[in-house]
Description:
Blueprint: E1 12-16, E2 25-31, E3 34-37, H1 39-43, E4 52-56, E5 65-72, E6 83-87, E7 110-115, E8 124-133, E9 139-143, E10 159-162, E11 167-175, E12 181-186, H2 187-193, H3 209-219, H4 226-238, H5 242-255, H6 258-268, H7 274-289
Antiparallel strand pairs: 1-2, 1-4, 2-3, 3-6, 4-5, 5-6, 7-8, 7-10, 8-9, 9-12, 10-11, 11-12
Helix pairs in contact: 3-5, 4-5, 4-6, 5-6, 5-7, 6-7
Amino acid sequence: MLATEHPLETCVARVWTDPYKAVDGAAFLVGDNLLCTCTHVLQGNRANPAADVWVNFPFLGDKKLRATLVGATAVEGSGGDIAFLSLLDPLPQGAMALRTFESRFSVGMLCDTYGFPLGYEEGIPTSAVIGNRTALGWRNLIAVNSQGVVIERGFSGAPVWDIVRQCIVGMIVAMHRKALVSFVIPSEVISKVCPQPLDLSDAESVFDERVSELLLRSAVRLADPEPIASYLSNLLREHKRGTARKWIYLTLGQLGGLRAKGILRIWTDRETDLAARDGLEDAQRILRDD
């Protein structure tokens, strides 16, 4: 078992409808012995989703665990393609359900996910920006990778993690085959059909050294950091604590780009907190050195 480096490593699982064949998709813990995935992951070429499946938490051991279907919505239509599995075997040590929150507060934010596309049955992480709502109630997830993999088949059922608010805001359900866009079922939609209550209480954004590190690690995969800089600009107005703004400034400095330079220039005359001002000056120094 590996020491966890990312919160998703404690809740993400891979799913097999046949334990002797390839991985069918992803799932994630949402409650006591309860996993959420997509109905189509369990369905495959069948008329109905498989009643008995096998799952494994790849960061928490090699054992395949038995699970059974306890509820599913039809693939078609608004609010559809959501399924829930109840584990029949004990959870591995370290497995836990993570906090969920409404997706509308994460629009424009860089999010992480972890899926199991063909050729990567051990799984692979990727990042994308969560976008606006569709008529189905889903949200688009815009892949902006400059390296690594884009979101594709094998990511269905994977959780979408808001790096700044430190919560799951939805589940990947589908992708557009001719564009770097996939779609997310928001947590608030999942909560309406979940057999166990999902806590969607306010997830206050936290910005500290750990969040900065996670954000910069994910941003390395981006072709264009400008949307992230814009989101961080909004966070500067949201956060009242100087220590949080300090880390936002330092993240902008490491992120680089014209947008980040402009934001730091604007806040030079506004920032009054001493700790935050130290971070601002350090960020500007980083950009000058580059």
